[in-house]
Amino acid sequence: MTFQEFNFKDTLNQAINDAGFKEPSPVQANSIPIILEGHDIIAQAQTGTGKTAAFGLPVIQMMSGNKGVEALVIVPTRELAMQVSDELFRFGKTAGLKTATVYGGAAYNKQIERINQANIIVATPGRLQDLLKSKRITLNPSFVILDEADEMLDMGFLDEIKNIFTFLPAERQTLMFSATMPKQIKILAEQILNSPKSVTITKSERTNTDITQKFYVVADYERDDALLRLIDYKNPNKCIIFCRMKKEVDRLSSYMTSQGFKVAALHGDMEQKQREHTIRSFKQGLVEIFIATDVAARGLDVNDVSHVFNYHIPFDSESYVHRIGRTGRAGNKGEAITLVSPNELRTIKRIEKDVGTTMVSEVIPTRQEVQSRKDGDLLSKIVQTEVTPAAIDMVKTLQHDLDIVAIAHLLAAIVQKEVDVKGKDIIGLGQEEIEKLIERAKNQRGGDSGNRNRRGRGRGRGGSGGSSRGRSGDRGQRSGNRGERSGNRDRNHRQNRN
Ligand code: ADP
Ligand code: MG
Q1: CA of 301 to the centre of ligand 1 (A)
Q2: Fewer CB atoms < 10 Å away: N or C end of the chain?
Q3: Which of 145-159, 221-235, 446-460 is least confident?
Q4: Angle at 330 between CA 324 and CA 331, to 5 degrees
Q5: Considering only CA atoms, which of 385, 353, 238, 209 is closest in space to residue 304?
Q6: Of the ligands numbered here, which is closest to the C-alpha atom of 149?
Q7: Which has the higher per-residue pLDDT, 330 or 488?
Q8: Which ligand approaches the C-alpha of residue 148 most closely?
Q9: Count of CB atoms within 10 A of residue 51's CB?
């Protein structure tokens, strides 16, 4: 299928071309004809599958451009408001359409001025409700779009949304887009949509095949080591590390900074200016690692995030889908990596079932493995490097005192230091151990004794500490490496206290 088949006007085809879109994504191919026919729609497709254009293109196609605010898009967060309005601006500017972004924290007068000049507004629920209730603005849009509806629900905006709709004309086309479809969203859809058609991108289409999903089994105290080792090994371009709590985001940020990484923390209660600034530096590559809570990173659209790390597995499947959707965007490949403790394996199984996906277990590479890889890279870099006159001079100077082999050894020692892999040799469980645990988790499923067992373990010893200590004993020679990285023990203490 091509975009030509929609018979869009020339200005719109031009914009699609400029955006570099070659062919419609599944949610676009399915939704656009329905919207063009004038139907209400409820569409579900995974994040990163192009939902913005799925409503943006047909709505822009149908807009007259001379009627004030003709399209109203409601999104859950300010970041999304900016992202979505950027994208709609791109599609609409060739037709001379003006876009305004409406969110809390900005000055009223300027915002209202911009709304009055706009054809499309993209708004967050709080400020929009505020403007409508206080009668600072009245709106009469022909198109109303509720984007990322499940996130609205998560962020507690249902009441605002319902209230906003009391200020909108009954005669309108309403479109609802969401990555997941919780029950409350379906109920809301019945209230605000009029005989909607539904589009559901089926599981296999919905699971973004550009994202490889892996998990590693580690003891709780090994999470920091595991994370560093994996980052060392995978060498991500940009990555996002997800934590469950803000407290953990802060701790991990200072730890990663102390290890020499360029990181930035992102949590929900940051000042808007600061958040925008942080996101910009991530996009520009000044920051290579984002450490974030679920809410803070919702909807974040950065195209070249190569890896998502779940420092802890999220509590629910929907969060998992949202988290991993930050990578593998716009046709790029991505990898989602989850660290779990042995007693979290059931959660893996549950998420796999809910999401209709498979996560593959892997063993964390040993220090030796990572070292060999990096040494190999270094050797090929050395042989490929061009010799400079300054280098020749330097060797000449050194040759006054040293023979050529000694010089080579010294230089190698200097460059080799750069690729030195830190940490203990073995981190986390081996493949056989993981398989045994998975087997055990399967057998326990649903059983009464299994439940009791799990609860007891969780409370008593703080997770898997006990069992993994036993394990490193089993692994004999490997266990000797435990204390090698200085500060290791210190970190464990800190973690236990948290
Ligand atoms: P969603 O809302 O489903 O999470 P977005 O609308 O944010 O996804 O789109 C994700 C990315 O994919 C954006 O950068 C967007 O510009 C890009 N994109 C959307 N549709 C296409 C397409 N047909 N071809 C190429 N890239 C696309
Ligand atoms: Mg979206």
Answers
A1: 9
A2: C
A3: 446-460
A4: 90
A5: 238
A6: 2
A7: 330
A8: 2
A9: 26
Mutational pocket test of ligand 1: of 13, 75, 207, 329, the residue with most ligand atoms within 8 Å of the beta carbon: 329
Rounded Cα distance between 107 and 112, Å, is 9
- Alpha carbon of 52 to ligand 1 centroid (Å): 7
Q: Which amino acid residue places its CA nearest to atom 9 of ligand 1?
A: 50
Ligand 1 atom closest to the CA of 21, numbered from 1: 24
| Mean predicted confidence (pLDDT) in 205-223 | 83
Q: Which atom, in ligand 1's list, is nearest to the CA of 45? A: 3
How many angstroms separate the CA atoms of 450 and 442, rounded?
10
Tokens 């919780």 found at: 182
HEC profile for the chain? CCHHHHCCCHHHHHHHHHHCCCCCCHHHHHHHHHHHCCCCEEEECCCCCCHHHHHHHHHHHHCCCCCCCCEEEECCCHHHHHHHHHHHHHHHHHHCCCEEEECCCCCHHHHHHHHHHCCEEEECHHHHHHHHHCCCCCCCCCEEEECCHHHHHHCCCHHHHHHHHHCCCCCCEEEEEECCCCHHHHHHHHHHCCCCEEEECCHHHHCCCCEEEEEEECCHHHHHHHHHHHHHHHCCCCEEEEECCHHHHHHHHHHHHHCCCCEEEECCCCCHHHHHHHHHHHHHCCCCEEEEEHHHHCCCCCCCCCEEEECCCCCCHHHHHHHHCCCCCCCCCEEEEEEECHHHHHHHHHHHHHHCCCCEECCCCCHHHHHHHHHHHHHHHHHHCCCCHHHHHHHHHHCCCCCHHHHHHHHHHHHHHHCCCCCCCCCCCCHHHHHHHHHHHHHHCCCHHHHHHHHHHHHHHCCCHHHHHHHHHHCHHHHHHHHHCCCHHHHHHHHHHC
User: What is the radius of gyration, based on Cα positions, of the chain?
Assistant: 27
pLDDT at 498: 34
Report pLDDT digits (tens) over 86-105: 999 999 999 999 999 999 98
Structure tokens at 305: 């995030």
Closest listed residue to residue 356, CA positions, set 395, 317, 387: 317
Distance 94 CA to ligand 1 centre (A): 19
pLDDT at 493 over 50: no
Instruction: Note the pLDDT of residue 486.
Output: 37
Q: Check residue 422 and give its pLDDT.
A: 85
Q: Both tokens of residue 251?
A: 């701790």
Range in 116-130, 315-329, 440-454 with the lowest mean pLDDT: 440-454
CA of 93 to the centre of ligand 2 (A): 20
Q: What is the pLDDT of residue 444?
A: 65
Q: What is the pLDDT of residue 312?
A: 94
Question: How many Å apart are CA 245 and CA 144, to the nearest integer?
Answer: 34
Quick check: CB of 47 below 6 Å from ligand 1? yes
Ligand of minimum distance to the alpha carbon of 23: 1
In this prediction, residue 445 carries a pLDDT of 54
